[in-house]
Design a protein that fits this description.
The structure is a single chain. A hairpin with an 8-residue loop joins β6 and β7. The longest helix is centred in the middle third of the chain and has 22 residues, at about 135-155. The chain has about 325 residues and is α/β, with parallel strands linked by helices. The protein has a single domain (about 5-250), classed as Vaccinia Virus protein VP39 (Rossmann fold, 3-Layer(aba) Sandwich). The protein is globular and about 60 Å long. The chain has helices spanning about 5-10, 10-20, 25-35, 55-70, 105-115, 135-155, 175-185, 285-290; strands at about 45-50, 80-85, 95-100, 120-125, 155-170, 185-190, 200-210, 245-250. The chain binds S-adenosylmethionine. Belongs to the class I-like SAM-binding methyltransferase superfamily. RNA methyltransferase RlmE family. TRM7 subfamily. Methylates the 2'-O-ribose of nucleotides at positions 32 and 34 of the tRNA anticodon loop of substrate tRNAs. GO terms for molecular function: tRNA (guanosine(34)-2'-O)-methyltransferase activity.
């Protein structure tokens, strides 16, 4: 397989490299912003689960770019962006990095310290666990990560603020929606054009943060999921928790499920572009080293280690 074959199969992977984004996920946030105007009035933003950093790049370009144009907004506030991930991330202009775990209260404290006690206007989370291929397990872990993101968000988000997070639209999604609706007056499930239809991945856009009266943020709080019972997701009719579903991104945008010819434009010759920023110290590095030395015994080992891959895998789960 030639190195350009992925460029053919995955138009957003290709465009990400050509436009200098570290991952194709950048387009998901850009398309969500196109629909929801996420960045208007935002001076303090948090990117949870940020590595390799394409969402942080979007935040940096949009928020700092806007600021450079307007110099200072009416309130004269400076733009601050914090990115958190378990993994190390190559530096980005105007983005403070915290290598840490979003489930830890110390991470929340570090974010608040960076904002000098001020709450964030926007929290985004594209967090994904390493998928196992066991759909129920993957959905469960993703749901736990979303709840952890919501939990840390309750520590750092201002009242009225916005939270955007990746969600798997699996069979327990109704419970997640209902938990989110406890904290936000508006919850919408959105599917950007750059997120493949074959993936159950979508994004919840939660607006107007308004926690229940007396709610005290607490990392060990299972976010009120004690109200869960097994019949919850079977609720029908008016009892069902319905959140609007929105396909978003400009409809003329490329279709992430299609294969495109390399020659996209009649008057622009295709040229292979290498990845913008390969991951630094990725968790699979050790396995690649072992494999190179024939020390890794595993069935169906892929023929190439993805040391140059800048693309995060879409969850290999059922199509929606
Ligand atoms: C799909 S990638 C994020 C891609 C990123 N939005 C971008 O645009 O480059 C998911 C990330 O979630 C991170 N992650 C998973 N669990 C985490 C946790 N508990 N705390 C912090 N980061 C976590 C992983 O390390 C991984 O880098």
């Amino acid at each position: 397989m030639g190195r350009s074959s992925k460029d053919k199969r995955d138009i957003y992977y290709r465009l990400a490299k050509e436009e200098g984004w570290r991952a194709r996920s950048a387009f998901k946030l850009l398309q969500l912003d196109h629909e929801f105007n996420l960045f208007t009035g935002v001076n303090r933003a948090v990117d949870l689960c940020a590595a390799p950093g394409s969402w942080s790049q979007v935040l940096s370009r949009k928020l700092r770019g806007r600021k450079e144009k307007a110099e200072k907004d009416e309130a004269g506030e400076e733009v601050k962006i914090v990115a958190v991930d378990l993994q190390a991330m190559a530096p980005l202009p105007g983005v403070t990095q915290i290598q840490g775990d979003i489930t830890k209260v110390t991470t929340a404290q570090e974010i608040i310290r960076h904002f000098e006690g001020q709450p964030a206007d926007l929290v985004v989370c594209d967090g994904a666990p390493d998928v196992t291929g066991l759909h129920d397990v993957d959905e469960y872990i993703q749901a736990q990560l979303l709840l952890a993101a919501l939990n840390i968000t309750t520590h750092v988000l201002k009242s009225g603020g916005t939270f955007v997070a990746k969600i798997f639209r699996g069979k327990d999604v109704t419970l997640l929606y209902s938990q989110l609706k406890i904290f936000f007056s508006s919850v919408t499930c959105a599917k950007p054009r750059s997120s493949r239809n074959s993936s159950i991945e979508a994004f919840v856009v939660c607006q107007n943060y308004s926690p229940p009266e007396g709610y005290v943020p607490n990392m060990s709080n299972p976010l009120l999921d004690h109200s869960y019972d097994v019949d919850f997701n079977q609720l029908e009719g008016p009892n069902r928790v319905i959140v609007p579903f929105l396909a978003c991104g400009d409809l003329s945008a490329f279709d992430s499920d299609r294969t495109y010819p390399l020659q996209l434009d009649a008057d622009k010759q295709y040229q292979y572009t290498p990845p913008t920023q390969p991951p630094i110290c990725p968790p699979y590095q050790e396995a690649c080293k072992l494999r190179k030395n024939n020390l890794l015994s595993r069935e169906d080992t892929p023929s190439v280690c993805p040391t140059q891959s800048q693309d995060e895998p879409e969850p290999p789960v059922e199509s929606t």
